[in-house]
TrEMBL record:
Keywords, ordered alphabetically: ATP synthesis, Cell membrane, CF(0), Hydrogen ion transport, Hydrolase, Ion transport, Membrane, Transmembrane, Transmembrane helix, Transport
Native source organism of the sequence: Advenella kashmirensis W13003
A cellular component term, taken from the record's GO annotations: endomembrane system
Keyword Transcription found: no
Membrane topology classification: Single-pass membrane protein
Record protein name field: ATP synthase subunit b
Cited Gene3D superfamilies: F1F0 ATP synthase subunit B, membrane domain
Keyword Repeat among UniProt keywords: no
Gene Ontology molecular functions: hydrolase activity; proton-transporting ATP synthase activity, rotational mechanism; proton-transporting ATPase activity, rotational mechanism
Subcellular location: Cell membrane; Endomembrane system
Amino acid sequence: MNLNATLFFQTLVFFVLAWFTMKFVWPPLIKAIEERRQKIADGLAAADKGKADLAQSQARISLIEADAKQQTHARLQDAEKHAASIVDAARGEAETERSRIIAQAQQDAEREVQRVRDSLRDEVAALAVKGAEQILKREVNPQTHAELLNQLKAQL
């Protein structure tokens, strides 16, 4: 065995193997690596896009929340104003009704007082007539008159 021939054949086999690998094995490997690299790049791009979309969605949610809070606050203020106006109207109506009831009660009391006075006058007049009648039927005697007056006082 010749060392030069062995080296020559080994070099020839090496180059044939290298050519075969570069021609038939290497392109599918490079293609698979490139596809994998592209998938990873697409995945990273999708992740970045997802992060950006998430950030935009969170910003929109923040705006929607702020708007909802503002609308809620405005509705609460409107409701409070409406409730205050209802309370004020009810107070006004109650005050008017109270004034009317007081005036009615005062009128009723005045009428009752007047009725009682008239009734008392009638009774006093009747008693006076009764007393005068009794005085005239009897003889004029100061002691008898005093007795009748005492009886009249007792009846009043």
